[in-house]
Design brief:
heterodimer, A: alpha/beta, Rossmann fold, seven-stranded mixed sheet, five-stranded parallel sheet, 10 helices, 15 strands, about 35% helix, about 15% strand, globular, B: mainly alpha, three-stranded antiparallel sheet, 20 helices, about 0% strand
């Protein structure tokens, strides 16, 4: 490929495609100038090539667009600060169409044809599980930003890592103590009847039980359902908390019908922002959610006590106080998830520096260096907060946010501890050879 | 509605840059007027806003509007429509000598695009080849062809190369066998539809570059053998499609002397010549492929095939089922259309041959095909068109700014949210309903060419009108249904 510089990023709110290209060019030029020190120590001026497996098209495109913006923002800062091991970072984007079969092809293409040092950035679980075997076969580090439990479960392989975002099992487990202690101890769950819903179905009840709370009913909704009136009467009348994780186009209808069912009363509501990621929380039909609570990985709305790192991260990615694009207030970001791209890139940087990564021959060293990481401190590299990394299961654990929707905004009312979301590891990737 | 105006003006004063400025302004104006959900960017929630709208009333209203139009035509004097359709404003003869140069420009652009497909960005939203083929040509040019006139004729990337080559080496070398009819174009369109709708990666720049290059070369060879005009008329599917669609437009050439004329939209359909069965099949395939594109993403279709729409498995997993679906949709539409014409002719004991009736009445499909195309793909034009402006300004991703639009901030969320969803839905519904009403009008006019007797002409149209009412309902339902993929 004769030209693979900046294959993405022109949709980026802060970094235009051309400025990114120009930036790389400028870096190269400066690197040869007398007195320029930042890249001078590198044995090679060849860039670190990070293959970005992007959901540019298909069902994940809205997420993919923001993952790309976050990625380009982080890479710009990394390069401005001297790159990795004295070498600039280059992002090579390939679209996987949010298609597992294409995902596998893309991983192979990035690893072999583009000769990327690693592959990174995948979100959708089925694409991750479809692509992971290829990463294992080709022995290319595969850093996903998926929040699926598939990495931590041990079902993938040693080349797959998720150091920049917590997994759904951890998220579900971590919100249970606050929910039981503050909203009520009798919980009814409504979830879509497939894998995403099953993670919630399976991991919330034991976590609630540990808090002396109980699940009264679990109502699984067929994924193709678009009206919910026949399911709502199944909610037990003594329900204190309704835990909802509906996703898809019918979410607005679900909330509207829920409001019509309960009128001005009803149980406390607790949901996952996944239901409304990239959607304006003040859309007509969502009025019934006012006063309810949501899990957020990273807050969509700017908070009064945001750290300097969080403020800098939001400014660099280009989102306003409402979590929308600075250029277009209608363009709502995927704030709860996309921070994972930022943090994963800095984990890659740290691991490459730790193992003195030089070329694709050092891919195994990069995996081992990542596995050796334990603590990640909140700061510019980890604006979402501290993390603990479990090298055996290749999974990061972190704080979660519980936000209340009031006045048209989500305000963080509780931040879970890292311990709230930890569970007993059930795998150990480090025992398998690289 | 937000406009898509560039956030920064271009710095260059070159002719290319000036041209870019005009293109940008023209596009921004178009973007102000046109909105439609875009498949490439469709987040799962956008249809969610539409699900809250009273779309059922629109569907009922649309069906009623088409039915009332038919009833209204029954009482309208037959020659009233003829007089309206015959109105023409003469524009003189087009500058034919320029055609070779405009075609050369089209060819030049094609070469740049193919090179960009091989050597430009790997990102389908940064590479100008997929954006131009799928958005600017398949959507934008279709829109211009249908509403303005046959512009494709002037930018067709084969005309100049074939003419120059034929001048050097002679040709054509053979006559296109008459029995081929429109069937080569039918095969071409079927392959194109399959590649667009079912092949897993039609937007991959390198794959698309290979496909369009191979197709261009094959077409070039066939045009050298059979002649440019001969192969364009019934073999090259894109030209055939654009010509058929342009019969609806307001600017056309006179059937008598080739001069340019302005007329009412669809007016030239009523005087169109009977087409062979191959062309009938071609138009039905064009309409059914767009219809299936909508159907294949609905929860209904996915549910019927055991696919969880919330965990859409990607196009690769659906190749077989969607290939069957595309074929079935075409077969279903064709069967219903032929049956409607057949029953209509039998109702009035017509003595006209069946192929003559379908060859004439199929022209009424053109407004429907155009309406489906516009309502289905307009947002793709508005959103991906912005990406195209950026990509064309720097086709090889090396930092150029040829059109001055390389720094343009793409408004990817231009059609998201509840207010845009309302606007989008209403525009789509209006296009679909208007398209079908025009189809009824055109069909009515054509029926009078088959049956001089007014009662017979009207009666023969009852089954076809029922089909159009049904297709109105289907079209609106497709746009109102929850979708994924």
């Amino acid at each position: 490929m004769s030209n693979t510089r900046d294959k993405a990023g022109f949709a980026n709110s802060r970094i235009s495609r051309r400025t990114a290209i120009k930036g790389l060019g400028a870096v190269a030029a400066l690197g040869t100038a007398p007195g320029y020190v930042r890249y001078a120590g590198a044995q090679t001026s060849e860039p670190i090539r990070i293959g970005f497996q992007a959901h540019k098209t298909g069902i994940g495109a809205a997420y993919g667009r923001w993952y790309e913006k976050t990625t380009m923002a982080a890479v710009k800062l990394i390069n401005d600060a001297g790159g990795i091991n004295g070498r600039p970072v280059e992002i090579i984007t390939e679209d996987d169409g949010t298609d597992p079969a294409r995902g596998a092809e893309v991983v192979a293409k990035l690893a072999t044809q583009h000769k990327c040092d690693l592959v990174y950035g995948t979100l959708f679980s089925h694409v991750v599980t479809g692509s992971a075997p290829v990463a294992g076969e080709l022995k290319v580090p595969y850093f996903v930003v998926s929040e699926g439990y598939h990495v931590a479960s041990g079902k993938l392989n040693r080349w797959c890592l998720q150091p920049g975002i917590t997994d759904v099992r951890s998220q579900v487990t971590s919100v249970a103590p606050w929910m039981a202690g503050n909203l009520g101890k009798k919980v009814t769950m409504i979830f879509p009847d497939y894998a995403f819903g099953y993670d919630h179905r399976d991991y919330l009840p034991p976590a609630l039980k540990a808090q002396g709370a109980e699940v009264l009913a679990q109502i699984a909704i067929p994924p193709t359902e678009t009206s919910f009136t026949k399911y709502l009467p199944q909610i037990p009348s003594d329900t204190e908390v309704l835990y909802h994780v509906m996703v898809g186009p019918a979410v607005l209808t679900f909330v509207k019908e829920l409001g019509e069912f309960y009128g001005s009363s009803g149980p406390q509501l607790f949901g996952f922002i996944d239901s409304l990621e990239a959607v304006d929380i003040n859309s007509p039909g969502l009025e019934f959610l006012d006063g309810s609570h949501f899990w957020e990985g990273s807050p969509r709305y700017a908070q009064e006590n945001d750290s300097d790192a969080q403020k800098a991260y939001r400014a660099a990615v280009g989102i306003d106080d409402n979590g929308a694009s600075l250029q277009d207030p209608k363009d709502i970001s995927t704030a709860a998830h996309m921070f994972g791209c930022w943090e994963t890139l800095y984990v890659i940087k740290q691991a490459m520096e730790a193992c003195d990564y030089k070329s694709t021959d050092d891919r195994a060293k990069l995996v081992e260096a990542t596995e050796a990481m334990t603590e990640m401190k909140e700061g510019p590299e980890h604006p979402q907060g501290d993390k603990i990394f479990n090298g055996k299961i290749h999974q990061a654990f972190g704080h979660q946010n519980i936000s209340k929707l009031e006045g048209g905004k989500l305000k963080v009312v509780h931040r879970t501890s890292i311990e709230d979301g930890q569970y007993e590891p059930q795998a150990d990737y480090t025992t398998t050879p690289l | 509605m937000r406009t898509a105006l560039p956030t920064r003006c271009m710095s260059s004063g070159s002719p290319l840059a000036r041209k870019g400025r005009w293109i940008a302004v023209a596009f921004a104006v178009a973007a102000c007027c046109l909105v439609h959900p875009d498949d490439a960017f469709a987040h799962a929630s956008e249809r969610g806003h539409v699900l809250l709208l009273p779309t059922g009333y629109y569907i009922l209203g649309g069906a009623a509007a088409v039915a009332v139009s038919f009833l209204g035509l029954m009482v309208l004097p037959p020659d009233a429509l003829d007089r309206l359709a015959a109105l023409r404003l003469q524009l003189g003869h087009p500058p034919e000598k320029l055609r070779i140069w405009t075609s050369l420009l089209g060819f030049g652009l094609f070469v740049v695009l193919v090179l960009a497909g091989f050597h430009g960005s790997r990102d389908p939203l940064s590479n100008p080849l997929p954006l131009t083929i799928w958005t600017l040509v398949w959507v934008g040019v279709t829109l211009l062809q249908g509403l303005v006139g046959d512009l494709w004729r002037w930018v067709d990337p084969w005309y100049a190369p074939v003419r120059v080559t034929a001048r050097l080496f002679g040709g054509p070398f053979a006559r296109l066998p008459a029995h081929f009819g429109y069937w080569p174009a039918v095969i071409g369109l079927a392959a194109f539809a399959w590649f667009e709708l079912i092949y897993p990666a039609p937007e991959d720049p390198a794959i698309l570059a290979i496909v369009v290059l191979v197709y261009w070369l094959a077409t070039f060879a066939l045009m050298l053998i059979f002649g440019h005009e001969s192969w364009s008329r019934s073999g090259e599917f894109l030209t055939v499609f654009f010509r058929l669609i342009s019969r609806f437009s307001i600017i056309g050439t006179s059937d008598k002397d080739g001069s340019l004329q302005i007329c009412w939209p669809g007016a030239r359909l009523s005087t169109a010549a009977q087409v062979p069965v191959g062309a009938v099949v071609f138009l039905l395939l064009a309409l059914s492929s767009v219809s299936f594109d909508g159907l294949s993403k609905t929860f209904l279709w996915l549910g019927l095939n055991g696919i969880n729409p919330l965990e859409f498995p990607g196009r690769t997993a659906l190749v077989t089922v969607n290939t069957a679906g595309l074929a079935l949709t075409f077969a279903g539409l064709a069967a219903v259309f032929f049956a409607a014409v057949f029953i209509g002719e039998r109702l009035v004991a017509s003595v006209e041959p069946f192929h003559k009736a379908v060859g004439l009445l199929v022209w009424s499909i053109v407004p429907i095909a155009l309406a489906y195309h516009l309502s289905h793909y307009l947002l793709a034009l508005v959103v991906d068109g912005q990406y195209a402006l950026v990509a064309l300004s720097d086709p090889f991703a090396v930092g150029w700014n040829l059109l001055g639009t390389a720094n343009f901030q793409v408004q990817a969320a231009i059609a998201t949210g509840s207010d845009p969803a309302w606007v989008i839905w209403n525009v789509q519904a209006a296009i679909i309903i208007l398209g079908h009403i025009l189809a009824v009008v055109v069909s009515h006019g054509l029926a009078f060419r088959l049956h001089a007797d007014a009662r017979k002409a009207v009666t023969s149209q009852i089954p076809l009108t029922l089909l159009m009412i049904g297709y109105t309902v289907f079209g609106l339902w497709l746009l109102a249904s929850p979708t994924a993929g």
